[in-house]
Design goal:
It is a single chain. This protein has 14 helices and 23 strands. It has about 475 residues and is an alpha/beta fold. It folds into 3 domains: about 170 residues, Rossmann fold, CATH 3.40.50; about 180 residues, no CATH class; about 90 residues, Alpha-Beta Complex (Type Iii Antifreeze Protein Isoform Hplc 12). Strands 8, 9, 10, 11, 12, 13, 14, 15, 16 and 17 form a 10-stranded mixed beta sheet that branches. A 7-stranded parallel beta sheet has the order 3-4-2-1-5-6-7, sandwiched between helices. A two-stranded antiparallel sheet has the order 18-21. Helix 4 links the parallel strand 3 and strand 4.
Length: about 475
């Protein structure tokens, strides 16, 4: 695909975008946007306006070019003068003639409010906040479709990239067995010290040498042994489940277990592990998504949080030729892994923005459906009055693990979506090992997230 040709409509036209959230993702997008032909990002929405100012300054704009606006009138004046606009919330800028709103706050309630507001004003919506998408992404996509505008995930995050890889594989007729992503941080093994490090956490790894190679052993045996050796390191993360829920809803692929197999796996082992058990792998069936924790030595290449598909080697002659060229084929020569070892945050989000504004196309699913939900299950008994608060980079609710469940109405004794539960208080005692349901929590009476979820449920899961 020639992207210059694909976006040639940008020649002579400027696509203008606003972004909410000036964190790592937003700052990288703002910086890179100055180097993208036909793209201008004149507006940052950030509750702490200084962070928006800092993002524009980091991208190279002079202080005199940046205006903090608190009204529509000041925003219009600044926009017409070609200035950079920073606002604490989006209402002063929503009437301005920009094309695309990029929602990147990461807040379920704020993101739902900003996102729907953008659609109501006829703006294409790029949803970076996976927390929002996991609860109400399908209804936002449907609202956009009915309005003749685009709702899309963002290239630079794994859901959009994996959907692209899946649909590419389907377009060329590959028989997909599984698809997935690497967890965000590798498990790096130093054989000199017998220690494995993942980001800022390290643990001794006695016995890792003995299970470094699959050899002729069962992948179930090797994966279990590695998991036991590295039990001190987290091997399942809520954001991974959240992102893969998006992929399930966008593609119709399934999931095999509620919290994924998430094996500690070397890149070369993916086509052995990520196939069904009757093919010698870990999965209960083919046609599902999963996640793996990338195991490597310090001098080996990383998956870099990238994405992969595993396809059947139906044409044995062709795949033997391709194996000899270096493609990653499993031990039985029945499956091949094809991968994209990168996700570049906001550095590559321009492709989603331009596809929406110039082509009227999403880089995600054509018409996503709520096949599954991200929910929570208690890991210990929790008392009534406990506040369920997602904290830290991995959105951990103390005493609750993330799981995937089949999609359904979020009401009564049904599971409450994980990010709807965030900030809620338990209304009664909940035993360990219990899926948290809607009737177990005291939910606010009127939230944008709750209203959108009720609309989504009524559309896709109507009462019989």
């Amino acid at each position: 695909m020639n992207y210059q040709t694909l976006f040639k409509a940008a020649q002579g036209r400027t696509v203008r975008a606003a972004i909410s959230g000036a964190g790592e993702f937003g700052t990288s997008f703002i910086f890179q946007s100055r180097r993208v032909p036909g793209l201008d990002v004149p507006i940052i929405v950030n509750r702490t306006v200084q962070r928006g100012i800092d993002a524009f300054r980091y991208a190279g704009f002079a202080a005199d070019d940046i205006v903090v606006c608190d009204s529509a009138a000041t925003a219009i004046k600044a926009f017409e003068a070609g200035r950079r606009i920073v606002v604490a919330e989006p209402s002063p800028v929503m009437e301005l003639p920009f094309d695309v709103f990029i929602e990147g706050t990461g807040s379920p309630e704020t993101g739902a409010r900003y996102g729907e507001n953008a659609l109501d004003h006829g703006k294409h919506l790029v949803m970076v906040s996976k927390e929002v998408d996991s609860v109400v992404g399908c209804i936002l996509a449907e609202k956009a479709r009915r309005a003749g505008i685009v709702y899309t995930p963002a290239d630079g995050d794994q859901p959009s990239l994996l959907i692209g890889l899946i649909t590419w594989a389907q377009a060329i007729g590959l028989n997909l067995l599984s698809a997935g992503k690497s967890s965000e941080y590798d498990f790096v093994y130093d054989p000199k010290t017998s220690v494995v490090t993942s980001l800022d956490r390290s643990t001794p790894a006695p016995g890792m040498d003995a299970v470094w190679e699959l050899g002729g052993r069962s992948v179930v045996e090797v994966a279990a042994r590695r998991g036991d050796i590295l039990a001190a390191l987290p091997q399942h993360a809520v954001p991974d489940l959240c992102e893969m829920a998006h992929v399930v809803n966008a593609t119709g692929l399934g999931f095999d277990t509620p919290s994924f197999h998430a094996p500690i796996c070397r890149i070369s082992e993916i086509p052995d592990m990520m196939v069904s058990r009757d093919m010698g792998g870990l999965l209960g069936r083919n046609g599902v998504v999963d996640v793996f924790n990338c195991l490597r030595k310090p001098d080996e290449l990383s998956m870099a949080g990238g994405v992969y598909v595993v396809a059947a080697c139906e044409d044995a002659k062709s795949w033997e030729v391709l194996r000899l060229k270096g493609h990653v084929v499993n031990r039985s020569r029945t499956a091949v892994m094809l991968y994209h070892p990168a996700h570049l945050l906001g550095v590559e989000t321009a492709t989603s923005v331009l596809a929406a504004a110039l082509l009227g196309q999403s880089t995600g699913g054509e018409r996503p459906r709520p096949h599954c939900d991200l929910a929570g299950r208690t890991t210990r008994a929790l008392a009534a009055g406990t506040v369920l608060k997602a904290q830290g980079h991995h959105h951990v609710i103390d005493g609750v693990e993330g799981i995937l469940v089949d999609g359904g109405r979020a009401e009564a004794s049904s599971p409450i979506p994980y990010y709807m539960a965030d900030g809620c208080t338990l209304a009664r005692d909940v035993p360990a090992g219990t899926v948290v349901t809607c009737d177990m929590v005291a939910m606010p009476a009127d939230t944008r997230l709750g209203r959108l979820r009720r609309e989504q449920d009524d559309l896709f899961h109507p009462r019989s």
